[in-house]
Write a structure and sequence with these properties.
With about 260 residues, the chain is mostly helical. Among the domains are: about 60 residues; about 120 residues. About 70% of the residues lie in helices and about 0% in strands. Helix 4 runs antiparallel to helix 5 and helix 6 runs antiparallel to helix 7. The N and C termini lie far apart (about 145 Å).
């Protein structure tokens, strides 16, 4: 017997075993998923289909009526909101006006008390300086404080004059009147300057002399006397070279 015939016979003998192996039950996880299609390959149309019939004429009419009612309600609601906002704004403005009037009245009263106290202090300082014109300890300080009070008094008066002038200008602009006769109030601090000049001459070693020269220069500058202001400030910073005398320097000495 040849080798080929022997192999054929062996194969025939193994057929029953192969058949029995094919009949063995397969695991459940294999049989359940054997015919399943992967999800990424599933191309079935899963969109929701609207099978409802088209709206009837009556339904369309009802929808339009509902939309019109919603629009009417929106307009009514907007008008109500605007009315509420207007009422709130008017109430706010009323309360604000009342508070401003109340505070303005209180401020005016306090300013009147301050003005009276300032005038009383001016009178007291003037009497003291008149009684003790040369006392080296107390008189220069009294003159320095009195000069500040003069400045405050004149500044407040000039601000009031300026406010009155602006009000008159606005009135003329509203009525169309001529502006040719309008005169702007001038600033004048001569009382402070005169007192401080006397202080500098009487007490040249006063410890607050720098403040005296500064305020003298400030008063001159506010009054438009710029050369006198310059000399006072130069005397403040360079007293070894410049001397303030209350008179403008000659034109040839201006530097």
């Amino acid at each position: 017997m040849t080798r080929t015939v022997a192999l054929a016979l062996a194969a025939l003998c193994a057929l029953p075993a192969i058949a029995s192996a094919d009949s063995t039950p397969q695991p459940s996880w294999i049989t359940e998923n054997a015919a399943a299609t992967p999800s990424f390959l599933d191309t079935s149309d899963r969109r929701i289909k609207d099978d409802r019939p088209p709206p009837s004429a009556e339904q369309v009419k009802g929808l339009k009526e509902l939309e019109a009612e919603v629009e009417r309600f929106r307009r009514i609601g907007g008008a109500y909101r605007d009315t509420v906002v207007s009422l709130l704004r008017r109430e706010y403005e009323r309360q604000r006006r009342d508070r401003e009037e109340e505070y303005a009245s209180q401020i005016k009263f306090e300013e009147q008390l301050e003005d009276k106290a300032r005038l009383d202090a001016i009178a007291l300082f003037e009497r003291f300086i008149q009684s003790y014109p040369s006392d080296p300890t107390y008189t220069p300080d009294a003159m320095f404080r009195l000069g500040e009070l003069y400045f405050e008094r004149d500044a407040i008066k000039q601000q009031e004059d300026m406010n009155a002038s602006l009000a008159e200008r606005d009135r003329r602009l509203d009525t169309g009147e001529s502006m040719d006769t309008m005169i702007e109030p001038e600033k004048n601090y001569s009382a402070t300057v005169a007192l401080y000049q006397r202080l500098v001459q009487t007490f040249p070693a006063y410890h607050n002399l720098d403040g005296v020269y500064y305020l003298i220069g400030y008063c001159h500058n506010e009054s438009g006397e710029f050369e006198l202001a310059r000399m006072a400030w130069l005397n403040l910073v360079c007293a070894n070279r410049y001397t303030y005398t209350g008179e403008a320097p000659p034109s040839e000495d201006k530097t």
